[in-house]
Amino acid sequence: MLTGKQRSYLKGLAHNEKALMQLGKEGLSEGFISQLDALLESHELIKVSVLDNSLEDAKAAAIDVCEALKAEYVQSIGNKFTIYRQSKTDPMIEIPGADNSRVRANKSRKASQVPKQEKLSKRGGKISKPNQNKNKKKTPRP
């Protein structure tokens, strides 16, 4: 259960995000719930838009989705609602006042696995090094 401060923090994170899913005229179907479950596992915080042709109300749909997915209701404004569920495999969002030990362990594990990246040009290609062998000693020709 989220406290008011935690819910407020998540609202701030979700403010600039776009809706990742749309709830249409079919309503809360099994396919919609399974896709939302996969998105929650990868993103943790999801905003869903309820289309005008849907028979569902945004807040009622959010509460039904939260019950089905064991997620937390964050907010609903107009025809959009936001839900949160911590990822089981890859938790990334640190919530103030909560036990964030899994999140910190995951971040430290990822930091230790970061490979060294090559420098890329402005257009995204590899930077060539034409003078790389210039400083090597040349062998005299006989």
UniProtKB/TrEMBL annotation:
**Residue ranges occupied by any CRM domain in the UniProt entry:** 1-96
Output the superkingdom of the source species.
Answer: Bacteria
Question: RNA-binding as a keyword?
Answer: yes
The protein's UniProt keywords, in alphabetical order, are:
RNA-binding
Instruction: Note the SMART domains from the entry.
Output: CRS1_YhbY
InterPro entries membership: RNA-binding_CRM, RNA-binding_domain, RNA-binding_YhbY, YhbY-like_sf
Q: Where are the transmembrane segments?
A: none
Q: Name the SUPFAM superfamilies on file.
A: YhbY-like
- Annotated signal sequence is none
- Protein name as it appears in the record: RNA-binding protein
Q: Which organism's genome codes for this protein? A: Fusibacter tunisiensis
